[in-house]
Amino acid sequence: MRIPDLDLDLLRGFVAVAERGGFTAAGAALGLTQSAVSLKIRKLEELLGKPVFERLTRGVALTREGETLIAYARRMLALNDEAVQRMIAPPVSGTLRLGVADHFVPRNLAPLLAGAGRLWPELHLMVEVGRSHELRAAQERGELDLVIGKRRDGETAGRLVFTEDIVWVAAPGFSVDPGRPLPLAMLPQGCMFRERAMAALARDGRGFDVTYTSASLLAVAAAAQAGLGVTVLGRHGLLPGLEVLSGLPEAGTAQMCVFGDETRQSPLIEPLIGLLRESVELR
């Protein structure tokens, strides 16, 4: 039996629907009608012989098969865009001032930089690492060109790259004493993850005590690795020497986005988003 080829145009429509939660929003992003996007998804499902979306009262949700396909689709589109960029786009030169949220750095920055160097060998990168809200403020002041950071609750700004669970982490073997306040190692006030963690504990009626604070994420992680307390990280940023801790209230999810290209004119944005997703999915 001949294995059919996947149509990149259908995959692009599929990813757009998955990221925007519906056919109408995906059509607006792609410059197509809702019916045209719906037709693409129907053709894709006919090609695969499996449904990729569950149709809900409001919007859609990925089926199990759709969840499997989405990672492949993003990688295929990223590779396609990279090849086209190298073949037909004019070389990108100059300087890109890039802000990167500290939660993204430990496990994901190296593959991102490797991909950027491969795509844009003539581009000079200036990377500033910090907390998302501080980097975004710097971008708004014109001090940075693009920022890879987190959305605040209720925001729609930025281009969504991926969504991840916020998880409680501690050193292997760390024991939570239910009779004592939970010791926390945290970034300073203003950190969204800190706010989410404290709100979740308060809702659960669990006492806590911030016993360690540092403006450096790696220093916070070191405190947790040393057994001084519990902290929260995005699941994609889980570091060696830490493991997910069960039994604590859910802290929700975080959306990692690219900020700074509201007009969508930069030739770097789509390839950059592809590299970001690849850095997460291929680990």
Automatic annotation (TrEMBL):
Q: Which GO terms describe its molecular function?
A: DNA binding; DNA-binding transcription factor activity
| Protein origin, superkingdom | Bacteria
Which positions are tagged coiled coil?
A: none
Supply the alphabetized keyword list. DNA-binding, Transcription, Transcription regulation
Question: What range does the record give for the signal peptide?
Answer: none
InterPro entries for the chain: LTTR (IPR050176), LysR_HTH_N (IPR000847), LysR_subst-bd (IPR005119), WH-like_DNA-bd_sf (IPR036388), WH_DNA-bd_sf (IPR036390)
Q: Tell me which residues make up the HTH lysR-type domain.
A: 6-63
- SUPFAM superfamilies (alphabetical): Periplasmic binding protein-like II (SSF53850), Winged helix' DNA-binding domain (SSF46785)
Family named by the database record? Belongs to the LysR transcriptional regulatory family.
Official protein name in the record: LysR family transcriptional regulator
